[in-house]
Amino acid sequence: MTSRYRVEYALKSHRRDEFIEWIKTLLACPFVLHADVESYNLAYPNLYEVPDDDKDSRFKQHEIDVAQDCQRRYLEIFKDVEQLIDHTILMDQLNDQQQKTLYPNPRYTLSRLRNLVPSIGRFFTKLPLSEAFLVEDERRGISKRRLVAPSFNDVRMILNMAQIMALTEINRELGRTHLKLITFDGDVTLYEDGQSLVEGSDVVKRLVQLLAMGVYVGVVTAAGYPGQSGAVKYEERLKGLIDYLNREDGSCILTKEQKENLLVMGAESNYLFRYNAQLKGLKFIDSEEWHLPQVQKWDNDKIKYIMHTCHHHLIHLQQKFQLEDTTTIIKKERSVGIIPNPGQKILREQLEEMVLSCSKKLEVILKSTDNTTTQTTQTSRSQASNDSTDEFTTSAGATTATTSSFDPASSSPLSDIKVCAFNGGSDVWVDIGDKALGVESLQKYLCQDESNDLCPIRKAESLHIGDQFALLGANDFKARLSACTVWIANPAETVAILDDILEFVEKRKLDTTETK
């Protein structure tokens, strides 16, 4: 029952990645047709006729032959996918150039890969998938398996490996850039859900090595704590790393400049902090210094209206599932969410229902325009206006009121504001902004000084590592718009990815030295 439940749950459409599922389908063909040892070829039955003394070695050799044949066929598929990606990158470049001409073509020419996988995004680098497959095949024994086909996790890890190979120039022909900025999600990526970094942890050691290389390291998290007072909250989560940076016994290997390459972007893209050696902690950076131009144009009344409507919708969902006594709704300046009370837990299915419902609600309210007042807009207005107050914290009997004056029927569209709804694993949140803006803001902020050798920081020179890349209800997904990405499942995988990055960078340095 449990296994069947997990399988059915994992097959929900909003949980899939269409590109990974498509590659899985391609790999299933050689697995089904060629991975069965007993029916692989006509030579197998003859193995029963060989002398007993020689039988074991013959069977082992036959296993090796089958594995090599499967590897060759899998490798051909990844080479073909590589070519499709190269073609997609070329078509994207041609389309971009065409749109800049005096007579832009309103219709884009789609690559074959985009026709096959419509949801696929932009590729900022080429991906050496065939080489990445050989590395992961050695580690995971994909070609040697006879009963378990190449899985979602197999393909995910191969894509991860190909991406870091391209970024670190381990493949010189395909990777023409180098890594300048690495950003991380917090929970489940740097540390376990609800935990914090410990100074002696493997993650801290790798982060220090990245900083020592001169790479900018950012934590882009959904947790939102504004102002200098909010720095304390982030320092608690990053305590192990902050403690290392503040060592006074001379054991810290980092210079002052390298230490200050550590940044934190809170509430997706709303609050920026940077390590300050003088303060020995994080310093709050005023939004005027780093907000992107499009964000500076956002109307605060629109933001209040969106937060008010989503807050009202969460109250509705809380009552619908009878969670008033076991959950608390928290409303902040630019985020609203529902969390379980201490000792309580929200069911996984309820979390999924709430995040999908909030996503649908956002689709409705973000389409509100000043020219037409549709039925959905009227419904959204009535739901938000029946109760003219917002509540910063809603649980059993605790409320604080404020007001929202924005009228969607008499104002400009809301669609210029970016909003994301996501399932945090134990809670659900709706945030103004998203991680695409968060990563892009870091890229621009760090390059305000054009004399910096690392500037500009392009999307092909940035990497975001996170655990939430599902199509809906996941907040790392949007980071794909601003950087290359790696999809991990736990902090141990983060450590493994960073080890590969550090190893490839070191190998690149050695190759460069030998060439000179």
TrEMBL record:
Entry EC number(s): 3.1.3.-
PANTHER family: IMP-SPECIFIC 5'-NUCLEOTIDASE 1 (PTHR28213:SF1)
GO molecular function: 5'-nucleotidase activity; ATP binding; magnesium ion binding
Protein name (database record): IMP-specific 5'-nucleotidase 1
A Gene Ontology BP annotation from the UniProt entry: inosine salvage
Keywords from the named record: ATP-binding, Hydrolase, Magnesium, Metal-binding, Nucleotide metabolism, Nucleotide-binding
Pfam families per UniProt: ISN1
Complex and partners: Homotetramer.
Biased amino acid composition, Low complexity: 372-383, 393-412
Cofactor field: Mg(2+)
Coiled coil: none
Domain of life from the UniProt record: Eukaryota
Role noted for this protein: IMP-specific 5'-nucleotidase involved in IMP (inositol monophosphate) degradation.
Chain segments annotated as transmembrane: none
Catalytic activities: IMP + H2O = inosine + phosphate
Family (UniProt): Belongs to the ISN1 family.
Annotated spans, Disordered: 372-412
